[in-house]
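The data are set out underneath:

___
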Amino acid sequence: MRHVVMLLLALALGACGSPPRPFEHDPSETPLYQPKQDAADVTIETPANMPQPMAERLAAALAIELQSYGIVAVLSPARAPLRITGAMTTRDAPAGNGIEVEVEWYLLSGGKVEGPAVSKTSTQSNDYAEASDSLVSRMAQQAAPRVASLMGHTPDAASRSVGAVVAGVTMPDPTVAADPAAQTAAAMPGVPAKPSVPAPPAEPQVKVMVGAITGAPSDGNQQLFSGMRRALGSNKIVVIDKAGNDAFVVSAVVSTAPVDDHTVQLTLKWTVKDPSGKELGNVEQSNPVAAAAARGSWAGFGDIVASAAVDGVLELLEKALNRPH
């Protein structure tokens, strides 16, 4: 099966000198968290590559957590001297049970960028899919001391966040946490413990490794590789670093052909394979672009191309998962 995606690549490549700003959004669509204090130290932007409802709730939760470190934070588009922004990736949890959600946080001040400060939170696949309140809260608790340190507010034992998390302390993994109700009942003499209720079956995880990207000029291979990882992660796909017997693989071949002295035909062919190595189909993109632009940096453009191709990749994955066995 082949999907063809046509892009305005010439326009996009021509704009590579000023890459898109994934952290900027329409102010009319953003809820504001306004603390009691009048002067704000920092604005919190919604992390990139994260489902928007989860991103908005995480930004609000982080703003609240930062109060415990003496930081007055508001949500974008409110203004402050500093800005905090971030980008999410997902992968298998180190213990092999669930998903690890990683967010790289950056501090923006004028023309300077500091970071990243990295927060990592392990969770179950169904909590991630539902963007549960407990997950969003733990992510904010993990991020707050690291963001505070990035801003020069070094956390210590006296600066405990709303979630009682200090720098360097890892939150309990919900995959092994005990049932609080059962713990309370067990602590009360004469009160029988409440029978445990089997947890609902977890939604199947779709694991994908982005394989080799070859043939692109300049830094195109690396930028397309990173762009596809981010595009998959933002669509609740678990992106892994090494292929396994339960992982799909997405790879791409890039080719250029001269059209005239100033233009080349740029073609990308994405291939999706199932865990057994069987090819499921292709997604193709092709357009004429300026030769000089194709030879320049693909920073930002790699994300544009991957975002345009990812819908076709997801369709191939969905059909493979739903086909009769």
